[in-house]
Design a protein that fits this description.
Layout lengths: L13 H4 L6 H11 L11 H11 L3 E4 L2 E3 L2 E4 L1 E8 L3 E7 L20 E2 L2 E3 L3 H22 L5 E8 L10 H10 L6 E4 L11 E3 L1 E2 L1 E10 L3 E2 L9 H14 L13 E8 L7 E2 L2 E10 L5 H15 L3 E9 L2 E2 L4 H14 L4 E3 L7 H4 L4 E4 L13 E3 H18 L5
Parallel strand pairs: 5-8, 5-9, 9-20, 10-19
Antiparallel strand pairs: 1-4, 2-3, 4-8, 6-7, 7-21, 11-18, 12-16, 12-17, 13-15, 14-16
Helix pairs in contact: 2-4, 4-10, 6-7, 8-10
Length: 405
């Protein structure tokens, strides 16, 4: 398979990209996908475009629209080629976050402009370019192997990852489970690299819990504080305890859990009135030594230690998880090193992803583009990294389906 052989320590950049097989299909497909304004949950033609490309490669495709009460209907795409085991799946999402004020962009956020060696557009990083790179890599693999390989390759794409994640990957996995078609291994194409292609493979994610703490008191005149019960000092003491007390010391693969205050609101327009209540919001990113329930218990204990009446509302978008290093991570790491010369770190940083659902059914890890500009104005990827990521994904497929591995 043509890749970019690199000596250890040599960085993947535009100079080394010149030695890689060009990937015009990946770049062109990435541009076409970015031009689909698929802000969650809109499909905007992105899945239809990919369905057409995958069917041209011989994949059988299923469009899987799901809906449920209280959540928007979501279109999903599942495609598979080959028979039997091993079954390798690439998973991702075509939905993107809103571009915000388009006037703040230097380019049309859905124009897929290439300028100065960079591809600009909403979804370039997160994560339409990675999808295009995998489709191009699968094309390359199938052309080179012909029928001389055993197993299956599938692609699972949702339009619900950036939203509530109710009618997307979880529903597709239920559908696959009912068909006895779950994969053995899955690579999720989320952006994982902090600054340069090849730096990090994600093998887990922290859990996330949002909370709203309301301390209740008794309203009164500011001139007679003894006749009122001011909730603000108690809220401040609670927040200091929560913000300054370590939750834990971290684990082998995770940094310490951390609570971040996001808002404090009294909502009091009068300067001479002690308010009846005071509220604060926060987010906790927690490691695999915790659960959402244990974090809530930790918060409650600190609040009770201060004393007084309070209400606590919490909601978790996902538990922490770790997919232990093994054959899949070794294959991906070897592929990354063969192309970039870098030895990737196995990390667990960042926000949540749909890998939190996939880890319940198979081995999973994540590798994709450099994530520095994800969700930002002028989101972009280096054009050189499009060739690099395509070569890495092709190397993953070669190694995964190698005879006798």
């Amino acid at each position: 398979m043509p890749t970019s052989p690199s000596e250890p320590g040599i960085s993947w950049d535009e100079a080394s990209a010149a030695h890689a097989e060009p990937s015009p299909d990946a770049l062109g497909l990435a541009q076409a996908l970015i031009r689909c304004a698929s802000v969650t949950p809109a499909e905007a033609g992105a899945l239809s475009l990919l369905q057409g490309r995958l069917e041209e490669l011989g994949f059988r495709c299923w469009r899987l629209p799901f809906e449920s009460p209280g959540a928007a209907p979501v279109d999903n795409l599942y495609a598979r080629i080959g028979q039997g085991r091993p079954h390798f799946c690439f998973a991702g999402h075509t939905d993107v976050v809103p571009p915000g004020d388009c006037a703040s962009w230097s380019v049309d956020p859905f124009g897929a402009v290439i300028r100065g060696g960079k591809l600009y557009g909403r979804g370039a990083v997160d994560m339409k370019t990675a999808i295009a790179c995998f489709v191009a890599a699968a094309h390359r693999f199938l052309e080179e192997r012909g029928g001389e390989w055993q197993g299956s390759i599938s692609v699972l794409l949702t339009g619900d990852e950036e939203g509530p994640a109710v009618n997307g990957t979880r529903r597709v996995l239920d559908w696959l489970r009912a068909r006895s078609d779950l994969p053995d291994d899955c690579l999720v194409g989320e952006p994982t690299n902090p600054a340069a292609l090849g730096e990090m493979i994600k093998i887990g994610r922290r859990g996330s819990l949002n909370g709203v703490l309301t301390v209740r008191g008794r309203q009164g005149h500011a001139a007679y504080p003894d006749l009122a019960d001011n909730p603000i000092p108690r809220l401040v003491r609670m927040l200091l305890a929560l913000a300054e007390t370590p939750i834990d010391g971290g684990t082998d693969h995770f940094e310490p859990s951390r609570l971040t205050l996001t808002t404090v609101d009294v909502g009091n327009p009068a300067t001479n009135v002690i308010p009846e209540s005071a509220t604060a919001g926060f987010n906790v990113r927690f490691n695999d030594s915790q659960t959402a329930a244990s974090v809530r218990g930790w918060i409650e204990r600190h609040c009770h230690a201060v004393g007084g009446a309070f209400d606590l509302v919490t909601e978790s978008s996902g538990e922490a998880f770790l997919s232990p290093p093994g054959d899949l991570t070794r294959i991906v790491a070897d592929a990354v090193t063969s192309v970039t010369g870098r030895t990737p770190v196995l990390g667990t940083s960042g926000g949540t992803s749909d890998a939190r659902f996939i880890k319940d059914v198979c081995r999973v890890c994540e590798f994709g583009m450099v994530g520095a500009t994800a969700h930002q104005v002028d989101e972009h990827v280096a054009v050189a990294d499009v060739a690099g990521l395509t070569a890495i994904y092709a190397a993953v497929l070669d190694r995964y389906f190698a005879v006798g591995r």
